[in-house]
Amino acid sequence: MRSWSAPDIVPLPGSGGPLRIHDTATGRIRTTTPGSTAGMYACGITPYDAAHLGHAFTYLTFDLVNRVWRDAGHDVNYVQNTTDIDDPLLERAEATGVDWRDLAHREIDVFREDMAALSILPPTSYVGVVESVDLISELAVRIRETGAAYEVDGDLYFSVEAASKFGEISNLSREEMLDLFGQRGGDPTRADKKDPLDWLLWRAERPGEPAWDSPLGRGRPGWHIECSAIALDRLGPSFDINGGGSDLIFPHHEMGAAETRCATGQPNAHNHLHVGMVGLNGEKMSKSLGNLVFVSKLRQEGVDPAVIRLAMLDHHYRAPWEWTDAELPAATERAERWRAAVALGAGPDAAPVLAAVRAALAEDLDSPSALAAVDAWATTALTRGGTDTSAPGLVRTTVDTLLGVVL
After folding, report:
1. Which DSSP helix (H) or strand (E) runs through 271?
2. What structural domains does the chain harbor?
3. Interatomic CA distance for residues 248 and 257, integer angstroms
């Protein structure tokens, strides 16, 4: 599946330091230690509707990781999926009378346009589930061959009893897991399962549903296993960062980690990064609640994508936050000040700004502190001036290359 166009990245003088991030599994800030090529996987959208700001905030976070690593001299192998076959997509297609394939293609196109407009660096591999059915069924077979899977009326389930380190990502109690599993796409009450937490690897063909031939019979993938299979194929086990929104910690990432460990004997990733939820009117922004602010709609209304990006950067990626009417005016005013400052013929020394932005982002992607460093420079430039004719250009490049904001 094709990705989207990449923005130009201008190298900065020197290089950034190692990236430290909060690892969900350990609950600690850890230094990432990639080799020459860093490996990263982010769970993509299920394309039954346009991308909202919660999605954009997640992919902005992984974009910052990408930029920090590249500034530190690493190549980055970034893989993202799109779940272009799943129950929510089929349900929306049926409800709206649209073919599920057409719906997926339409919304993936909108997503690509949104990501390009927001200067999100595209993944090295952007992979759909439909194109990965063979990979997914092969992984399900590998898991079955270990004895960790069993059938219920033709459906293949992973036995949670076979997951030796189950709970290593979420650190939840069994009661908490059962509650979330039922809320987030699981089927804890299905009869004939060995354990309510056992999850579906392969769904046997049902009348009227799309299905594919496989060694497991005709059917389609369950949830969780698509990301395990794609990540193993494109990154191998034990890559540097795996993650997505915090609502994916359980069950999605917990169960995916168990699948990888079962098939390979290794963890799927060294670090797990999760992004706080974006709310609106006191609720998490989600398709099921219908309280969405769409990136595409903001763009259609003429909002500068750089302003949308600045509004999101003003929030630390791990902290849940609320989108309010004040977000865009504040980000617009910041963009105007920055643009006015870099349009000057000269300004104060910008080397400290570059150093401060690098340091802030390297320490758990502290984008609000990075913005504050640029704010301080812009305020000084606009009120007191400066004599360094190279400073405005360096600030412009710093903001573009590290923060992804086009001035």
Report:
1. strand 269-275
2. 326-403 (1.20.120.640)
3. 12
Q: HSE, CB side, 13 Å, CA atoms: give it for residue 395.
A: 35
Closest listed residue to residue 201, CA positions, set 248, 263, 143? 143
Distance CA(221)–CA(231), nearest Å, equals 15
Burial 323-355 (b: 16+ CB within 10 A, else e): beeebbeebbebbebbeebbeeeebbebeebbe
Q: In the predicted model, what is the mean pLDDT of residues 154-172?
A: 96
* Cα distances (Å, whole numbers) of residue 302 to 308, 324, 334, 335, 399: 11, 18, 17, 15, 22
| Rounded alpha-carbon distances, angstroms, from residue 18 to 10, 133, 155, 173, 221 | 19, 37, 45, 34, 37
pLDDT, one tens digit per residue, over 41-55 is 999 999 998 889 999
d(CA 141, CA 135): 10
**Long-range contacts at 22-28 (CB < 8 A, ≥ 24 apart):** 22/273, 22/318, 22/364, 23/271, 23/272, 23/273, 24/169, 24/170, 24/243, 24/249, 24/253, 24/272, 24/273, 24/274, 25/168, 25/169, 25/171, 25/271, 25/272, 27/171
Tokens found for residue 108: 């993936």
At residue 288 the predicted structure's pLDDT band, cuts being 50, 70 and 90, is: low
Predicted local confidence at residue 291, as pLDDT = 74
Among 334, 305, 311, CA closest to 323? 311
Amino acid identity of 366? D
Show Cβ contacts of residue 62 under 8 Å, excluding neighbours closer than 6 positions.
Answer: 40, 42, 78, 80, 243, 273
With a CB cutoff of 8 Å and minimum separation 6, the contacts of 165 are: 257, 258, 261
Kind and range of the H or E run holding 82: strand 75-82
**Rounded CA separation 220/178 (Å):** 24
By C-alpha distance, which of 233, 255, 33 is closest to 129? 233
Is the pLDDT assigned to residue 285 strictly greater than 70?
no
Whether 107 has a pLDDT exceeding 80, the answer reads yes
Q: Over range 213-221, report the average pLDDT.
A: 98
How much is the pTM?
0.96
Question: What is the rounded radius of gyration, in angstroms, for the C-alpha atoms of the chain?
Answer: 22
Q: CA 118, CA 103: separation in Å to the nearest integer?
A: 23
From CA 345, how far away is CA 324, in angstroms rounded? Answer: 36
State which amino acid sits at residue 243: G
Distance (Å, rounded) from C-alpha 266 to C-alpha 274?
21
Dihedral angle of Cα 347, 348, 354, 360, to the nearest 10 degrees: -120
